Prior knowledge:
Blueprint: H1 2-21, H2 29-47, E1 52-56, H3 69-78, H4 85-94, E2 110-114, H5 116-123, H6 129-136, E3 143-146, E4 150-151, E5 157-167, E6 170-181, E7 184-195
Amino acid sequence: xxxxxxxxxxxxxxxxxxxxxxxxxxxxxxxxxxxxxxxxxxxxxxxxxxxxxxxxxxxxxxxxxxxxxxxxxxxxxxxxxxxxxxxxxxxxxxxxxxxxxxxxxxxxxxxxxxxxxxxxxxxxxxxxxxxxxxxxxxxxxxxxxxxxxxxxxxxxxxxxxxxxxxxxxxxxxxxxxxxxxxxxxxxxxxxxxxxx
Length: 196
C-alpha cells in the first residue's frame, strides 16, 4: 500500500512538472499564421526597416523560386548552429510548393502584394524597369520574396527565407533563424544564399 502511494505521488508530481515545462503552442492554422506574421515583421524590420514593402504574392525559397531548396537548405544548415530538427522538418513541409500570401497580413508596415505578371510588366518594357518600379513604389526597398516559416514544435524557434532585389545588380537573399524570447521574435542568425 505504501509503495503504491509513493508511485502514485511520484507520477502526480512528474505529470505536474511536465505540464509546467510544456509551453502552450499554436494549435489552429490562424494561430500559426499570426506567429508567421510576427516572424515576417521581425525579419523585415531587422533587414530593411522600411515603411512600405512590395512583396511577391506567392512564397519562395530563393531568388528564382526554382532553385533546389533541399541543397540550399543543406548549405544553410552547415552554416547555422542550434537549428532544431523539428524546425527544419517544418520548414521543408511548409515550403513543399509555393503558397499564396494573405493580403491582410499584419507585418508592422504597409505592403503591396504583386504577382509575377505584374512584376513582368515593369521589366518587359523598352524602359528602365527599376525606374518604373520606383516611380510607383518610391518607399519600397525593392521587390521582396519570402518563404513560409518553419517552426519548432514548441514555437520558440523559426526558420524563414527572405530576399530582395532592388536594382539590376543589387540584391541578396538570406535564411534567418529566429528565437522567441519573452514572447518576441528576434533574429538569431542569418546565412546569405545569393547576392547580385
